[in-house]
Amino acid sequence: MNGFERATREPVQRHDFDDGDHAQGPQSGDRLLSSGGVLPFLVGATVPAGRPLLLLSGHTPPVICRDAPADSIAAFGDTHAQTDGCLRELERSLRRLGLEMGDLVQLRVYVVGDPALGGRMDNEGFSRAYARWFGTPEQPHRVARTRVQVVGLVNPGWLVEIEAIAAA
């Protein structure tokens, strides 16, 4: 696959709730308001007919400390570092296909509980890294997102793995 033609693509319609009340259903616009302000993800997205979807396998964090054992958290960093690393790897994959982060419409994020937090998922670390990539002036689009805590991933040092769907 050499990439996707961008010139003739219809835009993705991104859905939010205008007041944070999920019972009312999706509204137009690109903001999700709630009592806490704008949330960093969408309720959903509609991809125009004829625009292919690209389903990307799980992206895992790169090694950041080569001196640490290859199956240790120290080799990959905490949840914040691993989330940022996974998103960088995802961006590289998209660019090789002629796409960009703004083409993403959905993320599925698997997060292992951090032993340093008593086995709880590091929501704050994840959210800080995620906020650098979505809903920013440089990349204003947000995605529909699911984040789940899992018992473990293939490498015991991984705390984060991210699958994605892009509208090509």
Automatic annotation (TrEMBL):
Record's compositionally biased regions (Basic and acidic residues): 1-22
Ranges in coiled-coil conformation: none
Start and end residues of each stretch annotated as Disordered: 1-30
One of the record's GO molecular function terms: deaminase activity
Gene Ontology CC annotations of this record: cytosol
Pfam family for this entry, one: Ribonuc_L-PSP
Superkingdom as given in the UniProt entry: Bacteria
InterPro entries, alphabetized: RutC-like_sf, YjgF/YER057c/UK114
Descriptive protein name: TdcF protein
Organism of this sequence: Lysobacter capsici AZ78
